[in-house]
Design brief:
This protein is of the alpha/beta class and 154 residues long. It contains 6 helices and 7 strands. It has a single domain, classed as Glutaredoxin (3-Layer(aba) Sandwich), CATH 3.40.30.10.
Length: 154
């Protein structure tokens, strides 16, 4: 996936077991869909908590973060609860959605790459953020991009 690409709708269970679709998540504004390799690992915890700490800034722009990893619903629930994340964590066991986004690695135990996609309400990719070891960069860059988009509309 690259900027301008149309994102096909998908459905995954969140940390509570509720089925979520991308189209429903986009109903209230842009989504910052971030793929991470492993719930509760050091780097993934740092990244997820940084998104949590910036929640008010995302909300002010009408956007919301949504995490995706190959972890089970139970692991996602434990991860979300332990860190009071306050946004959906989607369980992509088997990497079906990660494969669509180019965020899947077959030959490495940590199957999902750390990739973030800013997705507009039109279901188009606005920007892609990379950096496997840049845990804070993903949320910071997503906010910068959302601010630029909001500024270009106003």
């Amino acid at each position: 996936m690259k900027p301008g690409d149309q994102v096909q709708d998908f459905e995954l269970a969140d940390e509570t077991g509720e089925r979520r679709t991308l189209s429903a998540l986009l109903a209230d504004g842009p989504v910052v869909l971030f793929f991470y390799p492993l719930a509760s690992s050091g780097g993934c915890t740092r990244e997820a908590c940084h998104f949590r700490d910036l929640a008010a800034e995302f909300a002010a722009l009408g956007a919301r973060p949504v995490g995706v990893s190959p972890d089970s619903v139970d692991k996602q629930q434990s991860f979300a609860g332990a860190h009071s994340l306050g946004y959906p964590l989607l369980s992509d066991e088997g990497g079906v959605v990660a494969k669509r986004f180019g965020a899947w690695r077959r030959l490495i135990p940590l199957h999902t790459k750390r990739l973030t996609f800013v997705i507009g309400q039109d279901q188009r990719v606005v920007e892609v953020i990379t950096g496997e070891m840049k845990f804070d960069r993903h949320a910071d860059e997503a906010l910068r991009i959302l601010r630029e988009v909001a500024g270009s509309r106003g």
